[in-house]
Design brief:
By secondary structure, the protein is mainly alpha-helical. The protein has helices at 21-27, 29-41, 52-71, 79-93, 129-142, 144-156, 172-182, 188-203, 209-218, and strands spanning 10-17, 121-128.
């Protein structure tokens, strides 16, 4: 999954996010506008002096070039570009830039161990299909053992509701076992959240509240 490769198609994902994230993204509207203005000044964007055929070819090349720049985090002219570049960086940071085996059908639904009701905001974006598939495959195969154990736990406790701590429907030992396994599962949703936070941090002014919150979190 080379980060500069042009993806074939997109996949729509929905990131579940902490309260206030949408406001942080809205505050970046001037930044996105400045990035769009900057893109127009790049040499590949200009079709001046070209005939109709040459201009069409140039626009096609420029479209592909912009996609590559967005994935590389060098052009952040929209929320979609912000998330695309940040997800690419998350894949690299986690050491997931490699070829992964196919994933089973279960990987396309709700994952075992996923938290429920913890994230009040949502962001839906279209991402390059190969990038989304890479994240899903990496999450699944990295945590395959724990996911299998969680499915086994579910079979042993079919009526349990472990994501409802006040009424889990199982004894304390079983609940502790579930929570220990769930904590080891990296879900795609976790990656989307990390990517959105990374993108906001990187796009925010250095003295912004978003950067300050990130700094406090790190320390």
């Amino acid at each position: 999954m080379p980060p500069t490769a042009e993806a074939i198609g997109t996949i729509t994902i929905t990131a579940r996010l902490p309260f206030g994230t949408r406001k942080q993204l809205q505050d970046l509207t001037p930044f996105f506008a400045s990035e769009r203005a900057r893109a127009k000044t790049l040499s590949m964007a200009s079709t001046a002096g070209l005939n109709q055929r040459e201009a069409a070819a140039r626009r096609s090349l420029w479209h592909r070039e912009k996609q590559q720049l967005r994935r590389a985090g060098r052009l952040t002219d929209s929320i979609q570009a912000l998330v695309t570049g940040a997800v690419t960086q998350e894949v690299i940071k986690r050491g997931w830039k490699r070829t992964w085996p196919d994933i089973p059908h279960q990987a396309y639904g709700r994952w075992p161990g996923s938290p429920e009701g913890a994230w009040p905001e949502a962001l839906t974006v279209d991402l390059p299909a190969d990038l989304v598939q890479a994240v899903r495959a990496a999450c699944w195969h990295t945590c395959r053992k724990e996911i299998g154990l969680l499915y086994g736990w579910r079979e042993r406790h079919p009526d349990a509701r472990p994501r409802c701590p006040t009424r889990p429907g199982c004894d304390a030992a079983a609940l502790a076992e579930y929570q220990e396994l769930a904590a080891k599962v990296i879900t795609p949703g976790e990656v989307w959240r990390a990517a959105v936070a990374r993108g906001i941090h990187d796009a925010s002014p250095r003295d912004s509240p978003a950067r300050e919150r990130r700094r406090r979190h790190r320390h």
